[in-house]
Amino acid sequence: MAWRWIGRFAVPALVAAVFAAPLWFMVVGSLRPAGLPPPRTLEVLPAAPTLAAYRRLPELMPLFTYLANSALVVALAVPVTVLVASLTGFGLRLLTPPARRRMILGLLALLLVPVTAVWATRFELFRLAGAVDTYVPLLAPALLAVSPFLVLLYAWSFGGVPDSQLEAARLEGAGWLTVWRRLALPQVRPATLAVAVLAFTFHWSNFIDPLLYLHSGDRYTYPLGLRFLLLLNPTDWPLLMAGCVIATAPCVVVFLLAQRILLNDSPLSALRYGGPG
Amino acid sequence: MSRRPLTAWAFLAPYAVAVALLILVPALLNVGYAGTDHTGLTRDPRFVGLANVRRLLDDSFLVDSLQASLFHVALAVPVRLVAAVGLGLLLAAPRPGGRWFRTAVYLPTVIPDVALAVLFLWVLNPLYGPLNQLLGLVGHPGFTWLADPTTARVGVVLMLAFPIGEGFVVVLAARRMLNGRLYEAAALEGCGPVGQLRRLTLPLLAPVLVLLAVRDTILTLQVNFVPAYVLTDGRPANATLYLPVYIFDQVFEFSGFAYGSLITILLMLVTAAVITVQLVMVRRWRVLR
């Protein structure tokens, strides 16, 4: 009985603690007073917790400009991602099974193309189009639905919409776009939430594209700002950790909305509406 | 419903256009640019034949870069795969609070790359970083981590052992699709948990595991850019000058656009070679039956 308990709860709790540890050290590190000498022993709880580092952040860099830029990019890119992923997923749903299988294999192959392979030449295309130092190139991943993974997620979820319903809606004279918007999308709301959340974490965290494409400081998104902060104050740990906490917090909050679906006991049925949740 | 295939293609069209313009065309352009002297600054590249290839064969930095990348893949892929699969199987079964254990495992995946890298600059700090202090608790003097070539590479792998959420979720979902009856039958036959894992779970999950391994190889070859760029910037002694970092340096810092294109092709060939080796091993060991 004791062994069973260890296997079911003690080991998972230990694993959970190991994976939560980086976040914990990030928060604890951000609460240290600035002048204090660094700790010489492991500090699990902050000695004299203070929010001073968070107050110093906006004094040292245009924090709110960066955050607003990031928010703007996310507000544009997340809807585009959801739109492309859901249109493509619905298209896959409408294909005949053999064609669908071939397309899914194609998507899996696409999953294997490294982004690095197109860095330079994609940059060249955007440079020739005069789009460098604008937010347009940051929308490129959104047009690709971020990752074929998100398309597959939608394709699976739309698979739960019965053929008979699609046919009935068509017989009543609904166009395919209407069927997609009014009949199919409402049945896969959990999938939409999951895709939106994963898209948010991707676009909010995106570092490489802003690094390549944004040159003027006042257009920097927050991840670039964080690196700027690192170059400016490479050893001011409370300050840097506070910067990390601000970068991470929105992603954690948003992810907690979706964990009910993505980390469900049976995630695949939770993606479809009315699945156990 | 004879119009359905056509309609389906109409829904797929925007994505197909994006794939063509943002992936296929740039990927092919690499081949074109690799034979020119393009710097990325001017508009009219000139064709120079195999000059870039000659430069490639005589580039000691590239040798360092290849070594760093291969070392990284050889260590990081198994570590990440074992972590994702092990934790996925460990936490797949329903139990009270099960979702919170899974959430804890997924959390490092949602930390933005840069923030994770900056955090690990702190974690790996030799004097007062939490990791060396943890080692101190068990009486180990600790390492200088990012200052030494070998431990710097290990440090990068250590950091990338945390964001494994994608593989973890895939394993959770795949494990859930396995037939529960098989397990009941196996238990009746007297097959214990280890036997079930070896004889049922792993063989049944083999296709998923192969896909994850291949995907992670590619991801590992490219996602090490941000940690290497922020943590070490290729140092010390080129130990973490992974191929993506070298390509970035050539294309965006040294105006060696054409040469960078050529290294990109090399990176794709290396990736293809590593994946081929993996698939050959899969066949040899009859992982997929």
From TrEMBL, chain A:
Membrane-spanning segments: 9-31, 66-92, 104-123, 135-156, 191-208, 237-258
Keyword field contains ATP-binding: no
Residue stretches in coiled coil: none
Gene Ontology CC terms: plasma membrane
Topology versus the membrane: Multi-pass membrane protein
Pfam families in the cross-refs: BPD_transp_1
Classification via InterPro entries: MetI-like, MetI-like_sf
Keyword Cell membrane (UniProt): yes
Residue ranges of every copy of the ABC transmembrane type-1 domain listed in the record: 67-258
Subcellular location: Cell membrane
Keyword entries, A-Z: Cell membrane, Membrane, Transmembrane, Transmembrane helix, Transport
Example GO BP: transmembrane transport
Signal sequence, start to end: none
Family the UniProt entry places it in: Belongs to the binding-protein-dependent transport system permease family.
Name under which the protein is recorded: Carbohydrate ABC transporter permease
Automatic annotation (TrEMBL), chain B:
Record keywords, A-Z: Cell membrane, Membrane, Transmembrane, Transmembrane helix, Transport
PROSITE patterns referenced in this protein's UniProt entry, alphabetically: ABC_TM1
InterPro entries in UniProt: ABC_transporter_permease (IPR051393), MetI-like (IPR000515), MetI-like_sf (IPR035906)
ABC transmembrane type-1 domain boundaries: 66-280
Subcellular location: Cell membrane
Entry's transmembrane regions: 12-33, 70-92, 104-124, 154-174, 204-225, 257-282
Tagged with keyword Transmembrane: yes
Membrane topology qualifier: Multi-pass membrane protein
A cellular component annotation (GO) from this entry: plasma membrane
Biological process according to GO: transmembrane transport
Family as reported in the entry's similarity comment: Belongs to the binding-protein-dependent transport system permease family.
Name of the protein in question: ABC transporter permease
Originating organism: Micromonospora deserti
